[in-house]
Amino acid sequence: MKQVTSLALAAFLAAGAVNASAYEAGDWVLRLGATTVAPDEDSDSIVLPTSPATVLPGVSIDNDTQLGIIPVYMLTDNWGVELLAATPFEHDVKVNGVGINAGSVTHLPPTLSMQWYPFGGQRGWQPYVGLGLNYTFIYDEDVDPQLAGALEALLGASEAKLSLDDSFGLAAQAGVDIPLSDNWAVNLAVWYIDIDSTAKIRTDVGTVEFDVSIDPWVYNVGIAYRF
Ligand code: NI
Asked: What's the CA dihedral at 163, 67, 190, 171 to 10 degrees?
């Protein structure tokens, strides 16, 4: 049964490949999908100014999936420019080792990439690779009551606030549009984005800073429509 299904799918995709017209200079392609940001984070320790100092082994950041809105403009048959945009991602942040919730952060990671389509101008599957620039806006950082409670217990701090700096960096990507018909395709894509930030926890008794490399893998599974 599974074989029959995959044969049918293969035949369907092959038929699409025959019917699909080629990507050409001047085409717009809009990709929409479930876009997941999966941080591959590496965090410095958090050193709290108790005496002796309390060292917490950094933070970890969970995944989030949002609606990706990803337009592409074909400059030539083989070169395109793509903007990765999405609805805002929200991630929970945990303090490593002690297992307390630090809070949550929201961000938008727009990424503009130059893409190469080796089979541009030809019918069929359209694989591509790209290199780009990312600017990540990090905003709406919230402190969890668990972290606020720990800071109060350890430092006598109240009014804890969390902030993370925005990040500017490089992105690399690969993907494929698998044609279903003349204009519709299935899109699968992956990016690796260099996102580095400095986190600050501000309290009424002082500020603690530590660096966090978020460096996420980003995945999109969705559809593409060629105009
Ligand atoms: Ni990095």
From this structure: -40
Peptide linkage before 52 cis (omega within 30 of 0): yes
pLDDT higher than 60, residue 1 = no
Q: What is the 170 CA–ligand 1 centroid distance (Å)?
A: 9
> Cα separations (Å) of 42 from 124, 142, 206?
40, 20, 24
pLDDT bin (cut points 50, 70, 90) of residue 32 is very high
This prediction's pTM? 0.89
User: How far does the centroid of ligand 1 lie from the alpha carbon of residue 195, in Å?
Assistant: 5
For residue 35, the SS3 value is strand
* C-alpha of residue 92 to centroid of ligand 1, in Å: 19
Distance 60 CA to ligand 1 centre (A): 15
Q: Which of 83-87, 97-101, 206-210 has the highest mean pLDDT?
A: 83-87
